[in-house]
Design a protein that fits this description.
This protein is α/β, with parallel strands linked by helices. It has helices at residues 28-36, 46-49, 68-71, 75-96, 142-148, 155-173, 176-185, 189-214, 226-236, 239-247, 260-273, and strands spanning 12-14, 106-110, 113-116, 119-122, 128-130, 135-139.
Length: 287
């Protein structure tokens, strides 16, 4: 993926200077288990962290809005800034096509733990999006896990992670997230999980739409193998593969994000169609 000449986003918040030393307020082992129960990739932690007292992170030296010159010596953060900028351009154009204004999210970089309006976020949760503050959060150490633990290296695999979180932001702006949460609260655990899967697969599909619209653009240019990197990442974090890796068995009724095959299918669908209308996972008879 070629990105170095691209525009940098102004919506990056860098909290990494705050360091990882924060404890879980009101926490103990129960809160830790709640957090560790969140699967990697994009789950809105509102339901998981509801009722967990958050830790205030005061703005100042520990929270900055880095400019392009600040990220010049940090290639990974610099690349992410270009990816976010590109998602801003793509989704602004898409929203303009339906006569709506796209509200740009912020991406918070943190180390270890950080506060959010959804509660205390931890690196162990993986990247996540909080619908309450409309921020995406990522500890960049996740990318080491993506490469080493999940065998999904590559800069476009990393870009896919960000695009998936932005997909959740799009769902939030369109009112999809609120409706899914309402339906989940009225459903059995199994039905709630099925709704979560459809929501996550739609975010994968939206990531594919972004990839389609961004290729050959002014910020990012795709290279041979980039889409395969994203598909490999989508496959690597399927619920079936994660469950098999963690405990040796697979329980489909407990899936919250979708199988490897499903995640690959919906990202590919979004990429092939390039149209958010093709991402209606909720009306699809079969996913």
């Amino acid at each position: 993926m070629k990105w170095r000449g691209g525009r940098r986003s102004k919506n990056i918040i860098d909290r990494r200077a705050a360091g990882p030393g924060r404890k879980l307020a009101g926490g103990g082992i129960g809160t830790l288990l709640i957090i560790l129960a969140a699967m990697y990739f994009g789950v809105d932690p509102t339901l998981l962290l509801e009722g967990v007292q958050s830790v205030n992170v005061s703005p100042g030296r520990s929270e900055t809005r880095p400019g392009a010159e600040d990220l010049a010596d940090d290639p990974l953060a610099d690349m992410i800034s270009v990816v976010i900028a590109d998602t801003e351009d793509v989704w602004s154009d898409i929203f303009a096509g339906i006569n709506r204004r796209y509200e740009e999210p912020r991406l918070v970089l943190f180390s270890g733990t950080t506060n959010s309006s959804c509660g205390l976020g931890q690196a162990a949760m993986g990247p996540f999006y909080c619908s309450r503050d409309k921020n995406a959060y990522i500890d960049l150490s996740f990318y080491r896990d993506l490469q080493n633990r999940f065998n999904a290296p590559g800069d476009f695999a990393q870009a896919y992670v960000i695009a998936h979180e932005v997909g959740h932001h799009v769902q939030n702006l369109l009112g999809i997230s609120a409706e899914v949460q309402r339906m989940r609260q009225q459903s059995s655990e199994i039905e709630s999980n099925k709704l979560s899967v459809r929501q996550e697969l739609q975010a994968d599909c939206f990531a594919g739409v972004w990839a389609n619209r961004s290729r050959g653009g002014t910020n990012i240019s795709l290279e041979t193998g980039d889409i395969e990197e994203a598909l490999n990442a989508a496959s690597a974090i399927g619920d079936d593969r994660l469950q098999k890796q963690a405990r040796g068995t697979v329980t489909p009724d407990s899936f919250t994000h979708g199988s490897s095959q499903q995640r690959v299918h919906w990202f590919r669908r979004g990429f092939d169609q390039g149209d958010p209308e093709s991402c209606d996972t909720f009306s699809a008879e079969s996913i």
